Amino acid sequence: MKVLLIGYGAMNKITERLLIEAGHEVVGVIARTNDSDYPEYKHIDEADADVAIDFSNPELLLPLIEKDFKTPVVIATTGEKDTIVETLKTRSQNAPVFFSANMSYGVHVLNNLLKSALEQLADFDLELIEAHHSKKVDAPSGTLVKLLDTALEHRESSHAVYDRSDVYQQRDEKEIGVSAIRGGTIVGEHTALFAGLDEIIEIKHRAQSKEIFANGAIKAAEVLHKKDNGFYDYNNLFKGE
After folding, report:
1. What pTM does this model have?
2. Which of 15, 39, 49, 219 has the greatest number of CB atoms lying within 10 Å of its CB?
């Protein structure tokens, strides 16, 4: 599989290493700063790759996907999720595209567990908490936004609360609390905390290495580049495999 890397920061450097170990070929890079030995491209189709893997940022990605392309793309950029997804769905008429706010399949399972818990714990208060390293710039994380979307869909009339520091009142039963922690080298943790009468239930995913995200992107790419044009995520990518 010939792969174009969109972005050449820490995540795609890990992806590069794992691609080579798996016998794939990196054919080029699209990046604002390319400190690799690979050819640098300006447009997705220029590299004539089998698939492109993106770990970048909205500033780099959005101008690329605003133009038509036919190369299958795996997109892992967080931030400006709604704009990115809307644009990708338009481009999916001409290319297979895969998007996930978190490339870990375990996080996809976490979201499914959250759906089940929301149905069974309707009278429990819900708090969503995420923690990441000090260099992460967006908050809350794209993954927590996805979990929040799931919760809002399942709890009618609920609303997110990001800050209680200027409110002097009891918790509203319709609240879904959202908290973001930044510090050190935390790879990524996401927790759904259900608080009921005299009991607490937590559903948690803890990433122990950034390699899980790179491996998830590579697995998605291996499947995606054989797919028909369309918009894919973890809910439909592996159907028929």
Report:
1. 0.81
2. 15
Which residue among 24, 132, 146, 210 is the active-site one? 132
Q: What is the mean pLDDT of the chain?
A: 94
Spatial neighbors of 188 by CB under 8 A, at least 6 apart, are 102, 130, 131, 132, 141, 143, 206, 207
Residue 240 banded pLDDT, cuts 50, 70, 90: low
Q: How many CB atoms lie within 10 A of CB 123?
A: 8
Element (H, E) at 181: strand 175-182
174 is catalytic: no
The verdict on whether 136 is a catalytic residue reads: yes
**Percent with pLDDT over 90 in the chain:** 85
Catalytic residue among 2, 81, 136, 227: 136
Three-class secondary structure of residue 19 per DSSP: helix
Structure confidence by residue, pLDDT tens digits, 61-79: 999 999 999 999 999 987 7
CA 13 vs. chain centroid, Å, equals 18
Q: Are 182 and 139 in contact (CB under 8 A)?
A: yes
